[in-house]
C-alpha cells in the first residue's frame, strides 16, 4: 500500500454517503411524523414542554449561563417560541435538523428520552429556526444562522425533497440573533387545536415546572396582545429544609395572582445508580403541595402529579396528594408515564447485576414516602395556620386506573399503602374541637363523615349528627367537599 498513489475519496462515495445519510434521516422520522398526522390529545398538549426542554438543555453544559428567559408569542395563526439560552453547537444544530438526540447520556439533559422535538409538529410540519452558532469547538466565536425544516411529506420521496429543501434554506451570517426563535405557521384545524390544548396545559403546569426547573428565570406569554408574565419569587425556609416558594402571574387587564408551593427535597448518593451509569450519581427528588392565599391546601384535580423536571403529560390518572419531581426518573419515550412494569434489575455483560430503568423509578418513588411524611407532619403540627388538610389523602382511597407501563400491585403495596400509614399518624381532619386523626390508637375509625346522594339530606344528617358526634365530625365545609 505504501508504494501506491493516494487519491481523494471518489465522488461516488461522497454521493453514496449523502444518500445514506438522507435515508437514515427518513427512517428516523417517518413513523413518528405519520403518527402526528392524527396526534393524540397528549401529543397536542406536549409541544410547549418540548420547546421548553430544548431551551433548558441548551445551557446544560454552559458553565457561564445558569438561567434562561422564555417568550411565547401567538399572532393569529403564527406561533413563535423564543429563548435566550446558549448558542447551538454544530452537533446540536444538526441534531435538531436531522432528528438526532445528541446528548442521551447527559443526565442533565431532559431531552435524553425520545422523539421530543418532533412532537412540536402538531403545530406545523414547517418550522423556521433562527439563532446563533458556535463557529468552532473552542466556543469562542459566534455567527448567526437561519434554517427552515420541511417535514410535511407523505412518503419517502416527499420527505427526501423536504430535507434537501431544508439544506438549501440554511444561511449563516456575521450578524448575531441573540435569541433562539422557532416559528410555526398553523395551517389546519388540527394545528389550531394543538395550540389551544398546549396553551391550556402550559398555564396549568408552568408554576410547578418553574419550581422544579431552576433554570427557568422568567416566562412571558403574548397571546394575540394579551400578556401573561410569570415571575419566580424568593423562596423562604419554613423549618427542617421545608420551603415555601411563590410565583406571581401578571395578566393584562386582570389583577395579579400568586401560586404558592410548600416543598421539600432530598439529594442522596445512590450505589445502584452509580453502578449502572459508571459515575458517581445521586437521587434527586422534590415533593410539593400547593396552598392558596389563605393557606388552604389546593386540590390537584387533573394535572400530572409526576414530573421529570417537565410534566409527564398523560400521567394524570396517577393523581397523588403531592407533586413529585425527579430529573432521575425514567419515563417512556414520549414522557407520558413512568416505566413501572418489569424487573427491578437486569444483567450487564461487564457490570453483572445492575438496577433496571424500572428499578430506578421504583427506588425514587419509594423515597417519596419520607418526603410525604415530612410535609404531612409540618402541616399537621401547624394546624392553626393551614387548612383543608384532608386533601393530603387525595388519591389514596384506591389505586388509579392506569394501563400504560403501570404495575397496579406494586404501586398499591409500595406507595399507596405506605402513604396511608403515614396519614394515620397525624391529625389532619378539622373538627370543632381541633384537628383529629382519622383513626384511634387501636385502629378504630375516629372520624364520621355523613353522606347522602342528595345534598339537602346530607345537610340534615350532618346537623343532627353534630348534636351527638360533634368531636368526630369534620367541619361542615370540609364534609361537603
Structure description:
This protein has 481 residues and is α+β, with helices and mostly antiparallel strands. It has three domains: 182 residues, Heat Shock Protein 90, CATH 3.30.565; 183 residues, no CATH class; 34 residues, no CATH class. Helix content is 32%, strand content 25%. It has ten helices and 19 strands. It has a 15-stranded mixed beta sheet that branches. Strand 13 and strand 14 form a beta hairpin. Helix 1 packs across helix 4 and helix 7 packs parallel to helix 8. It is globular, with a radius of gyration of 26 Å. The chain starts with 10 loop residues before the first helix and ends with a helix. The mean pLDDT is 88.
Secondary-structure-based class equals alpha+beta
Strand tally is 19
User: Which percent range fits the helix content?
Assistant: 25-40%
Radius of gyration: 26 Å
Mean pLDDT: 88
Largest sheet: 15 strands, mixed
Low-confidence segments: none
Task: Provide the succession of SSEs.
Answer: HHEEHEEHEEHEEEEEHEEEEEEHHEEHH
Distance between the termini: 85 Å
- Total number of domains: 3
* Number of helical stretches of at least 4 residues: 10
Blueprint (SSEs and pairs):
Elements: H1 11-35, H2 41-57, E1 68-75, E2 78-83, H3 90-97, E3 126-134, E4 142-150, H4 156-169, E5 171-173, E6 180-185, H5 189-212, E7 216-223, E8 226-232, E9 236-239, E10 242-251, E11 257-269, H6 271-277, E12 282-291, E13 306-308, E14 310-311, E15 323-325, E16 345-348, E17 352-355, H7 357-381, H8 408-424, E18 427-431, E19 434-437, H9 455-469, H10 476-479
Amino acid at each position: 500500500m505504501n508504494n501506491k498513489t493516494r487519491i481523494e475519496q471518489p465522488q461516488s462515495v461522497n454521493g453514496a454517503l449523502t444518500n445514506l445519510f438522507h435515508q437514515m434521516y427518513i427512517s428516523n422520522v417517518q413513523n413518528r411524523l405519520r403518527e402526528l398526522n392524527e396526534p393524540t390529545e397528549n401529543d397536542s398538549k406536549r409541544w410547549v414542554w418540548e420547546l421548553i426542554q430544548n431551551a433548558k438543555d441548551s445551557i446544560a453544559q454552559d458553565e457561564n449561563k445558569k438561567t434562561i428567559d422564555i417568550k411565547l408569542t401567538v399572532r393569529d395563526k403564527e406561533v413563535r417560541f423564543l429563548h435566550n439560552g446558549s448558542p447551538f453547537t454544530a452537533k446540536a444544530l444538526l441534531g435538531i435538523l436531522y432528528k438526532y438526540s445528541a446528548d442521551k447520556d447527559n443526565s442533565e439533559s431532559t431531552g435524553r428520552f425520545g422523539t421530543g422535538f418532533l412532537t412540536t409538529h402538531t403545530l406545523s410540519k414547517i418550522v423556521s429556526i433562527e439563532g446563533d452558532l458556535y463557529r468552532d469547538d473552542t466556543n469562542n466565536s459566534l455567527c448567526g444562522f437561519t434554517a427552515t425544516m420541511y417535514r410535511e411529506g407523505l412518503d419517502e420521496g416527499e420527505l427526501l425533497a423536504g430535507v434537501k429543501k431544508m439544506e438549501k434554506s440554511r444561511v449563516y451570517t456575521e450578524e448575531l440573533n441573540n435569541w433562539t426563535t422557532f416559528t410555526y405557521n398553523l395551517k389546519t384545524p388540527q394545528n389550531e387545536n394543538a395550540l389551544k390544548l398546549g396553551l391550556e396545559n402550559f398555564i396549568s403546569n408552568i408554576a410547578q415546572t418553574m419550581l422544579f426547573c431552576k433554570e427557568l428565570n422568567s416566562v412571558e406569554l403574548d397571546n394575540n396582545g394579551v400578556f401573561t408574565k410569570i415571575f419566580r419569587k424568593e423562596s423562604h425556609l419554613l423549618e427542617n429544609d421545608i420551603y415555601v416558594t411563590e410565583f406571581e402571574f401578571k395578566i393584562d387587564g386582570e389583577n395579579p395572582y400568586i401560586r404558592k408551593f410548600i416543598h421539600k427535597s432530598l439529594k442522596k448518593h445512590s450505589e445502584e445508580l452509580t453502578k449502572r451509569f459508571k459515575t458517581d450519581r445521586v437521587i434527586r427528588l422534590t415533593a410539593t403541595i400547593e396552598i392558596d392565599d389563605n393557606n388552604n391546601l389546593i386540590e390537584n384535580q387533573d394535572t400530572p402529579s409526576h414530573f421529570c423536571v417537565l410534566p409527564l403529560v398523560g400521567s394524570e390518572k396517577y393523581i397523588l396528594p403531592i407533586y413529585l419531581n425527579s430529573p432521575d426518573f425514567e419515563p417512556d419515550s414520549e414522557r407520558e408515564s413512568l416505566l413501572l412494569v418489569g424487573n427491578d434489575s437486569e444483567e450487564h455483560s461487564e457490570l453483572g447485576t445492575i438496577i433496571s430503568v424500572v428499578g430506578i423509578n421504583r427506588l425514587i418513588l419509594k423515597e417519596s414516602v419520607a418526603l410525604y411524611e415530612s410535609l404531612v407532619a409540618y402541616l399537621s403540627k401547624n394546624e392553626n395556620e393551614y387548612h383543608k388538610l384532608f386533601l393530603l389523602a387525595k388519591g389514596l382511597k384506591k389505586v388509579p386506573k392506569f394501563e400504560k407501563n403501570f404495575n397496579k400491585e406494586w404501586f398499591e403495596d409500595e406507595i399507596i399503602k405506605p402513604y396511608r400509614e403515614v396519614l394515620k399518624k397525624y391529625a389532619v381532619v378539622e373538627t370543632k374541637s381541633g384537628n383529629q386523626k382519622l383513626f384511634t390508637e387501636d385502629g378504630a375509625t375516629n372520624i364520621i363523615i355523613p353522606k347522602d346522594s342528595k345534598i339537602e339530606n346530607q345537610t340534615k344528617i350532618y346537623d343532627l349528627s353534630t348534636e351527638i358526634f360533634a368531636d368526630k365530625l369534620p367541619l361542615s365545609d370540609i364534609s361537603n367537599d
